[in-house]
Amino acid sequence: MTRSTRTAAGAVILGATALFTAAAPAAWASSGPAPVAPPSATDVAAARQAATGAVPTLGRFFASQAGLRSRTATAANAAATRPRLTAAPTAVYELSPGFVTGKSGEVAHLAFLATPAVAADGQTASVWAARVSNGTWKIVNIASGTDEQTYAQRAGSGAIAFHEPQIDAWYALRDGKVTPLNDSARSGVRAGTTLAAYQRLVQRRYADKMPGSAYARNGAAGGYAAAPTGSYGAPADKGGSTGSGRTPLIVCGIVMAGGAGALGARRLRRNGD
Q: Which keywords appear in this protein's UniProt record, sorted alphabetically (predicted)?
């Protein structure tokens, strides 16, 4: 598969987090990695309900993708795409800021739930639902393609697929080891990489991009949100990477625990296999 660009929604930097220093020991080293918390059945049902309510918006998204710009994507055009949800929501986990700083053994946290959908012409998309500050689940983005489901399946039974959004890398976490699932992930990571080695890698990549850093003060996307749920990092580059052809429809801005975060379109570099 050729390299492509996927545009996705990312949260702006929230809260304040102390910068990691190279000399600081990983607080979780003695106790081992923390388990990745899955969504509850209630959360999955709420995300599915939110996705069901977004089917008319999904139709407009598919109509736009088919070449109809928003000014001509009428209700009739949207209905003609006959959008439908095709499976249960998939939990999407993203690299945890606490793991980057060495303060937590939680490698990844639940960022959102993605429900796959298809149009009459075969287009596919993922409908993203996130839990906002008042505890309700809302649709925050619709993105073309179904990468979330693809990588969850590729990780296999008993593993957790998680995303490092700054470089659009996908990994499988199994038995305390990290294995890359796409080309972006293979930059510095081999199958069976230990968590300690992976933590050192992401610390080098992002220690200077945490909230409160000069990187964050300069307005660059790429720091981490403070909230453990409903928030996720934006890509590191500010403007011009090529990316996936994965077009977003950002449905709303959301207020997240720990601060207000406006969702913005950012480009992620995608390497296909």
A: Signal
